[in-house]
């Protein structure tokens, strides 16, 4: 039998402790799988630990696995154990998973964590002391003890969460913990890191259902209306009445945009996407889209804004891709730069410049910074052992080497990591290394390299951080990452590579080398600006006047927050350094990761083919922006949010407001006579608008989007309560009331159109055209709610803004982007997946994966033949045949052959 | 179906003559059985397994170690997943999983009818509409 476990999965504790019981009675293999791997073919959700029995059946319940081990040892089931296990599953687990989630994922402490489990802990304590038995089900340790101990251990091993007054629980827990099998299980699972060892696993799990209903993540809380002071109401009314007169003149567009003394000058960069691949939704929300929202917002505030990005083009990966596609690196860059640019254009990203790093400016600025660092003694030389292929006459980057894993003996381990055991490898440690290009055996050669002397720059960096961080809007994850790097101490960092495709190193003896992409990629921002304007130094050597906002996913933090600042500080040339480093967490796809090679997830170029408009994508991605914690793209959720928030809430409100003006008042905004209720509404909207500003100034993009939806919810309620469609048919006073309500509603719609502009620019423009909103009101957002559509203003033609997404439409998209079958790790490759095959979008499939599929087809073919020979049950044969056909289909797709029975449209 | 009614139904199908009385505990109305010779038993599957033993039909709890574990696994599934469902999507996912599990099986353990089949059937009854031609229903 085979036990599947996952790093940090709490269920491993009781299972490993119980497994000792069955030792010697059955052979047990243990395999480690990823937290999102679906080991059990019939379960839609991933589940570990799982025990695969020798007959192929699965035990996926932690307690059932433990029970099985105990049964194998001759133990007999009894009522009391059953009762404990049932209690554990129905009462303890929901409480515990909430507590662990608070503790491990959300970093809460104390009563927040203990609160949910206190009742359960007391129950155990009372039962133990009432029965006055040392163990839960009698005089000896048994199944119930192991299962409950395993569940509780991650929490209770921290004495802070083992209340002292629960004496019986205390001594029971100590006794069980001291048993050898338990000790060993605890060491294996928690690795002496305590409960934090569970983090990588728990983070990947959906929020426990016991927590749902309580707002923790994305879901809007029930909005409680704030209490308003008379003063607030009076101020809101005054601002409203001044109307368009409040607005300053629109700033004329500039080209190039340059900083202006005495103004707020905002320089915004989005991490440079690597050129060799098509970005997926996670990449898009992580940097370009997030930065775009902020850039658009910044312009609405009339701040002097420059937003730049570009493709990062140098490096090994480009060379590899070029070799794969039979093009030169330059051709690859040209090709993919255009693909990137097209995607961002489709998503309506408002770059002032979208450049690239392979330009003469890049060489000039990089070499200049290097020379300055070199002449100031911040560059070291050292020798590095590297594999060199004599046949190809070049040093091999890690990904160009393959060989036998020194740890597990796997034959096709890569130069940096083994796919089978997952261990990190130094390419020089590989046994029987092979050059991936020519298959000859490389030799170890030493090569001279340059290192940036980070330890020497550490003090300057810390001083700079001390001045920069307090009061800034660096995201917490970025602060945390930088702090942990500094805590571990900085080490010299290699900044050169034995490559051709890169910025040449201007130093004698280094003619065959180029700068490592991470030394010069961040310099790309400077060179891209230099290609935009020859006055680029006014942005980049002007820290006094410029606020630099840099957007990225968290894996990019060390280079932007540490390596580049060190280079810039060492170069001593008054560079503008990052004022606000904005890092997102990761976006997952449905329940797993985006994967190009497996065809899982939606990639930038495919979003266009879904028929769903760019603004809907923008909205949903921003709604689930991984701000503060990982989040996941889900098709069902996208449908839900589109149909509920956009269609029923926002779209419905704006459309109704406009329709009432057209239908009841001939398209002219009616006179408004504000009652005190209306004035309160004005104040509430103003308050929410100010909240929106506060959030966006702090770059809390996702949260600010909620404010928009809140205002439109207020608007819907307002219309619903005041029923203008009824009053319009009533008395003179009723008709006047209908006019006021309609007028106020359509003004709220106008405000929403501006607030929406950073998020959904096209929809915003559509609303503004429908309402004929005057240009200054479209381009400027103040902190007050103004009457921008005064009585007598003629609006345009109103039409619905959003379309309903239908279930079957979404279902077919989910199928289309669900990916192929190669989700199982190699560990599991013998196992035949029974998931439906949806391979239409598999594009890039490596030869290794094709081989895996071929093996699976052969294996499955044998199974079918055997079954047929045995005259097995018809259904069983049919099921196996279906699996075989599935596999063949995937193989055909992977090899790029046309399908025999094409389904849907095949993508390039 | 309340848990007590379900247990009474189970008693009948097991051929137990004297009917037990059940009380209910807490928010979720967990059934409690007061036994004559010993402490009370709490929990649907715990009591059900107890009744099976009372009726001398232990084979309904599985005969091999493996069957026993599988039976208990699905009993746990019944009280956590089936009773703990929160949305339509959950139910749909659950039925899908079960359907896929049962594709090559007659009963939950494979070929032998067990307590797990009975309780899962009771549990699903309320959301499987009879005319929904679900494989699970046919198999049971």
From TrEMBL, chain A:
Q: Is-annotated flag, keyword Transit peptide?
A: no
Q: Where in the cell is it found?
A: Cytoplasm, Cytosol; Nucleus, Nucleolus
Q: Can you name one GO molecular function term for this protein?
A: methionine-tRNA ligase activity
An individual GO BP term: positive regulation of transcription of nucleolar large rRNA by RNA polymerase I
Question: One Pfam annotation, family name?
Answer: GST_C
The reply on keyword tRNA-binding is yes
> What does UniProt give as GO cellular component?
aminoacyl-tRNA synthetase multienzyme complex; cytosol; nucleolus
Keywords assigned by UniProt? Aminoacyl-tRNA synthetase, ATP-binding, Cytoplasm, Ligase, Nucleotide-binding, Nucleus, Protein biosynthesis, RNA-binding, tRNA-binding
**Database matches in CDD domains:** Anticodon_Ia_Met, GST_C_MetRS_N, MetRS_core, MetRS_RNA
Q: What is its EC number?
A: 6.1.1.10
Annotated PROSITE patterns:
AA_TRNA_LIGASE_I, GST_CTER, WHEP_TRS_1, WHEP_TRS_2
EC top class, as a word: ligase
- Please state the protein's primary subcellular location: cytoplasm
Q: What catalytic activity does the UniProt entry give for this protein?
A: tRNA(Met) + L-methionine + ATP = L-methionyl-tRNA(Met) + AMP + diphosphate
Q: Which residues form the GST C-terminal domain?
A: 74-198
- Similarity field: Belongs to the class-I aminoacyl-tRNA synthetase family.
The UniProt entry, under PANTHER family, shows: METHIONINE--TRNA LIGASE (PTHR45765), METHIONINE--TRNA LIGASE, CYTOPLASMIC (PTHR45765:SF1)
- Name it: Methionine--tRNA ligase, cytoplasmic
- What species was this sequence derived from? Equus asinus (Donkey)
UniProtKB/TrEMBL annotation, chain B:
Q: Which GO terms describe its cellular component?
A: aminoacyl-tRNA synthetase multienzyme complex; cytoplasm; nucleus
Q: Which Gene3D superfamilies match?
A: 1.20.1050.10, 3.40.30.90
One BP annotation, GO: positive regulation of DNA damage response, signal transduction by p53 class mediator
Report the superkingdom from the record.
Eukaryota
Q: Which InterPro entries match?
A: EEF1E1, Glutathione-S-Trfase_C-like, Glutathione-S-Trfase_C_sf
- What range(s) does the GST C-terminal domain occupy? 50-140
Q: What is this protein called?
A: Biosis of lysosomal organelles complex 1 subunit 5
Please report the organism this UniProt entry assigns to the protein. Answer: Equus asinus
